[in-house]
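Note to self: keep these together.
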Amino acid sequence: MENNRPRSSESSLSPLSGWPVLIGLVAAEALLITALAQLDPNRNTGWIVLGTAVGGVGFLLTLVGFFVVNPNMSRVMVLFGRYRGTVRTDGFWWINPFTSKHKVSLKAHNMASQKIKVNDQVGNPIEIGAVVVWRIADTAQAMFDVEDYEEYVDIQVEAAVRKLASSHPYDEHDTSADVVSLRGDTEQVTGELQVALGERLERAGVEVVEARISHLAYAPEIASAMLQRQQAQAIIAARRQIVEGAVGMVQDALELLKAGDVVELDDERRATLVGNLLVVLCSQESAQPVLNTGSLYN
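Structure:
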């Protein structure tokens, strides 16, 4: 059941540049040290201790506020349990020291799913695997709407691949010709996989850049039998093509004999000639000539 909680949405945050803050921090510490150095240690011990403590705490807190954003990286900012925004601009920045800064990579991630065994649409056990290229599109959803977005992607990819494999036959010979097969309709299958992953990973703010089937094969226990069936189908298809070509050649030969008035053929002689030509054209062995010294009718 879909969670009714509103989805998080990324918002941009513009922090202060870190360089002016760093210069101001150094200047403030220099002034504090100068002021403390001018005090008399015998008369102003309390002020020296207090100034040193305040300066040290302020210096440490200010240092905590500095952070760096590298190219193709981002920082998700959370202040006292509330989302404040995301910094995507690379550079040296400063923000409230009490703000939590979570790194989220914006780079493209390339993952290869494990080879999983599943039954296809007609029940044949097959092995299938996929390669998926993805990246974070919404950092707020990735951080707050799922527990671990990388693990979430791994699990959803496997679930999508399993559903895809069970929705199509392995080969077009396993069912009617108008059904999309995993082996024969690669582009359509990968398109379905990418759309299905996009819908599943939208909750985590993940964009699917590309999805491809990387491994597809029959399971080992039926691979040998399926190979024999494919070989038989290939032989039948080749034989059918040979017969169709031979019939066409016989028709052409009969028409040429008739047009050239080479010989008059009655039905019996025509049948004998057709049979001999088909044997010669369809046979896998070389024809052996036979000399007939008598009549066809003797």
